[in-house]
């Protein structure tokens, strides 16, 4: 398995972080919810990729690879600086997006009876929460929309808020720009490859034309297998493991220094391979 050691180290990191945060307070900040949720999901994707590699499921792998890159960039951006503000932006953006998807379903569902029951159930739960004057789904969307807008430098520019990471109106209006801001664009080239394969723009990459007895035949080839793709992403995951330990200042916890040393070797392997 390609990611086994990193997944196990990641789980140890989560345990140490959770223990530290809980000892401070049973209630953790929204930025921590955002960071830990993204990190946990990144590990889950690595675990799923290991299973797909074993099954040689390349097309399914590409979907995970692209999502993996996006979440890597999100965590790295939050941890870079202004982590509370950036973590809150991700959290509130995620809330608003999810609630709006629910609203779209409820408004367009063919089964009106089921949609009505679901709306009533959601709004019953909303009325139990601690948010003042939040009784309906629309109230909840407005509540989180307001929270989301407060983290931006210029609240008047609604268009700029489409990208939660464009907090300070610095032109981070695409994944490509975010990748170049964080990583010089290296990882975006991988993202582009994975995106092309997801959207069917590279569907003939695994075939070559050969003349056989006066007829052209398509022959299956293996140009860029799943193992190679996973190998390319391992250093990026190692970087995040190290950054999580340092951000939460758990270097002195049992086993953490060993994880840092091991993952530093992994994270530097990409640099050595390019020389």
How would you portray this structure in words?
The chain is mainly alpha-helical. The chain has one domain. 68% of the residues lie in helices and 4% in strands. It is built from ten helices and two strands. Strands 1-2 form a two-stranded antiparallel sheet. A hairpin with a 2-residue loop joins strand 1 and strand 2. Helix 1 (4-24) runs antiparallel to helix 2 (30-55) and helix 2 (30-55) packs antiparallel against helix 9 (226-247). The longest helix has 26 residues, at 30-55. The radius of gyration is 22 Å and the shape is globular. The model is unreliable at 206-211, 218-224 and 270-275 (pLDDT under 50).
